[in-house]
Structure formats: C-alpha cells, structure tokens
Amino acid sequence: MGKFIYDGTVKTEVEDRALTHLQLVITAKLRRGEPFPFSWREDPSVGGGRTTVWLHSASSLVFKYYGSRKPAINRAWIEALAFTANSPAGLHLVPEPAEEPQADDVNAAPTVA
User: Is 0.90 topped by the overall pTM?
Assistant: First the structure.
C-alpha cells in the first residue's frame, strides 16, 4: 500500500499498482501545464467522506511506494484514468479494466505447455 501526499499535509493510501497508474496520468498532465482536480474517497477509519485537491505545476506531490517492484502498466487503465482527468469532475480512481491484447499478441502463435 503506497501513499499519495499533496503539499505535505493531505495524504491518502493507495495500492502501489493503482498509484503507479495515477502517477503516470498526473505527471503527464502537469508536464503539459494542465491543472486539474483529483478526488478520492476517504477510508472510514479517518472519518470517511471525500477529498479533492487542485493539482497544478507548483503543487508539491509525493508518490510513496512500499513495494520495491515496478508493476506492469495497463494502457487501458491509463486511458480510463486520463479520460476522468480530462472531465469537468477531474481525476478519480476507476477500476482497472482488462488490458486489450496488443497487435503483436493477436497474431502470435499459441504456446504449447
């Protein structure tokens, strides 16, 4: 379980795999100079509710991972997260979709065990 930390004070726990995908979407938008809101639901153990922060190029962001391995990237999930980030409501975590097979994978011969 990793952590997303905004301006040193606002923190939320996010599973490492999801945090990696969020980081890719957030950094891509900020590199392009596109500010946007990011919202998440708080765990009931910290009072529940929802938090929204405004992300912009001057934001202080920390992506803290507890695992040492970098997860495989699901391009379909990146696209789904980017879609929410570009909406008026802003970025929010969506369930990971099944990854679509790559063009190379479609034409590959099946392996025999």
Answer: no
